[in-house]
Specification:
It is a single chain. The chain has helices spanning 10-22, 29-34, 56-66, 95-125, 144-153, 171-177, 180-190, 203-211, 266-269, and strands spanning 40-47, 51-52, 71-74, 81-82, 87-94, 132-134, 167-169, 196-200, 216-220, 239-243, 259-263, 276-278. It is α/β, with parallel strands linked by helices. The longest helix has 31 residues, at 95-125.
């Protein structure tokens, strides 16, 4: 399966992950010692949980890097929702290579599928409302692009990828610049082509953001009751995003006709890996 993820260096990720496991000697001492060099295995990766699948192409890269001739059949597609006990892939190839790559491949798919599975719960909770679910930058260093890929597999959309592709003006930026209007004006002066989003914590700040005609205003830790205040405001062309401790159990309380986006750091921060196995 062809796999491309913009700006994600798959080969470098595979090399670094395997190097971490193989250490300074570059050796899987157990497999090298107890398995003859000419032994071939047939293996199956399956899920012990009901999951939304994410990360299988990356798992393929781990196995193929150690045995380019390994035969690998993917039995499900990325984003597919599968029941517990479902076989995800079958492999045939060098036994040592298969066992050496196994844990790195499983760890990656377990984590990314955990993200995709949790994300799908949020997406299902807001289905049909017209509201868009967004992720955040609350990711594990070095894994951001893979994690942001997994949320899209689960049905979410990416917020900004990093600090470079959109403005998100927060309280410390506002304090350093001297006010909301000045901060927005500076952003538009420096990069008029980029989206300007501003985070607010009070209704007064919200009104200032609307006066400044920001592209998106993020309501940080507003209560569901505060959503009713939006009926009294002229939002103009400004889109509204809500964020702050929004779990999939709470997300329905933040749905409002004026809310275009709901963002949650929990998608990548409060993730439990799913349970996979290889036989």
């Amino acid at each position: 399966m062809a796999f491309t993820l913009p700006h994600f260096d798959l080969d470098a990720f595979v090399r670094a992950t395997l190097a971490e496991d193989l250490g300074p000697t570059g050796t899987d001492v157990t497999s090298q010692s107890v398995i003859p060099a000419d032994v071939r295995f047939e293996g199956t990766m399956d899920s012990r949980d009901a999951i939304v699948v994410a990360g299988l192409p990356i798992a393929v890269a781990f196995f193929s890097s150690l045995d380019p001739a390994m035969e690998i059949d993917l039995l499900v597609e990325e984003g597919q929702q599968v029941a517990a006990g479902t076989e995800l892939m079958r492999l045939r190839g060098d036994a040592r290579a298969m066992l050496t790559a196994e844990r790195s491949a499983l760890n990656t798919v377990q984590h990314l599928s955990g993200i995709a599975t949790l994300t799908r719960q949020y997406v299902d909770a807001i289905s049909g409302t017209g509201c868009t679910l967004l992720d955040t930058r609350k990711t594990i260093p070095g894994l951001r692009l893979a994690q942001k890929y997994a949320v899209t597999v689960g049905g979410c959309h990416n917020h900004r990828i990093g600090l470079y592709d959109a403005f998100l003006i927060k309280e410390n930026h506002i304090a350093a610049c001297g006010g909301i209007a000045l901060a927005v004006a500076k952003a538009r002066e420096i990069a008029p082509e980029k989206r300007v989003e501003l985070e607010v914590e009070t209704l007064d700040e919200l009104n200032q953001a609307l006066d400044a005609s920001v592209d998106v205003v993020m309501l940080d830790n507003f209560s569901p009751e505060d959503m009713n205040r939006l009926n009294q405001l002229n939002l103009g062309t400004t889109k509204v995003e809500v964020s702050g401790d929004i779990t999939h159990e709470k997300v329905a309380g933040y749905l409002h006709s004026a809310v275009s986006y709901i963002s949650s750091g929990s998608l990548t921060k409060h993730v439990q890996a799913v349970d996979l196995s290889m036989r």
